[in-house]
Amino acid sequence: MNKISVSELAARSNSAFLRIDVRSGSEYATGHIHGAINIPLEEIEMRTADLNSGQPIVLICKMGQRARMAGALLEPCGYELYVLEGGTQAWRRAGLPLVSTVKSRWSLERQVRLAAGSLVLLGSVLALIASPYWLFLSGFVGLGLTFAGISDICPMGILLAWLPWNRAGHCHAGISRAVQPSAP
Fold it and tell me: For the chain, what is the mean pLDDT?
């Protein structure tokens, strides 16, 4: 699988490559390279019909790891594949603009990991210092994560999505804004 640098991709026109961003929808919305199409990694094999096999494909993610994973899934299909070295983080560090359609925030998946990990840690600590019954909190979180893994329904994610910072802002349809990179 080929690699392409940020400077090489930036120098090429949007039509030179089909740009595929394999991050989650919420990550994509917080800042993506202009012209990139969002096909999350977990959907890439089901959406090969969305890929033009006659055009080289650049796979993009935050730092490059998921793009390489997507490339490994697509390589047997015969596509001409490139992975953007350093992903959108390298693009931002190079001072190139990203298109944003929502306020910058943590992805819902990251919020679930933080909340679940914090609850397990809290339950464990309280079980050590207060009462062993607090282990039920850790067990309950573990049960919820197991249910989410089996069913692909995450109750904690559903609850977190209702929090004010995760609700969509009000804007006119079809309008997005280019975001200049922030200082590292």
Answer: 85
Assign residue 96 the CATH number of its domain.
Answer: 3.40.250.10
Q: What is the number of structural domains in the chain?
A: 2
pLDDT band at 168 (very low <50, low <70, confident <90, very high): low
Let me know whether 9 and 95 are in one domain.
yes
Residues 29 and 55 in one domain: yes
User: Are residues 126 and 89 located together in one domain of the fold?
Assistant: no
**Mean local confidence (pLDDT), 84-110:** 85
- Is the pTM for the entire model greater than 0.70? no
Compute the Cα dihedral for 146, 147, 151, 154 and give only its sign.
negative
CA distance 170 to 95: 28
CA distances from 126 to 65, 113, 145, 163 (A): 37, 20, 20, 26
Active site (catalytic) residues: 61
Residue 99's SS3 state is strand
